Amino acid sequence: MRILLAEDEHVLAEQIKAVLTGEGRVVDLAHDGIDAQFLGETEPYDLIILDIGLPQRDGLTVLKYWRAHGVDTPVLILTARDGWSDRVDGLDAGGDDYLTKPFHMPELSARVRAMIRRQSGKASPVFKKGGISFDTRTNQVMVNGMPANLTSQEIAVLSYLFHNSDRLISRAELSEHIYHYDGDRDSNTIAVFVNRLRKKLGNDLIETVRGRGYVIKAAA
Question: Counting CB atoms within 10 angstroms of each CB, which of 59, 76, 91, 161 has the fewest?
């Protein structure tokens, strides 16, 4: 899953990025409001973490712009302001949730997971299909009760397909959601990851629609 982190405090931004990357997320950074507004409008993120106090263009202005221009990506607002009115302003501008600084990283991670689940219409943090289970809290994948050894990119592909189960996902869409903004988005490598997943998890989990993409059908 791909996240835009708009935070001007460089040390904090790197700490958040390290935590989310360690959980298998792809994180793009923006350190000012102008870059954040551009990336949020032009790139297909699954979630945006937005600091209100950005330089050059404040976070509320950026958020209002996104919503006015049809960007409906879930936004988690970060604010150092304690006043309840600032939190209300952020939610009224189109934010989906907020955290007040300072915060604990596990809480940030939990809110990110919950927001991504809500966006995909999934209530449980554990996806199950046949003998396969995928715990989004730990990225632990089990096959008939035994842990599967997956690479970070294989987990990224599996996570996106599970979060979008019952929806046909093209190679191009998958590549956009598992690579960074400036990464080498070769959609042909997606087929390689899918083939590896089939070898490790079985051939029945991920279905191919020839010439169109892949789908994990929800369990009946």
Answer: 91
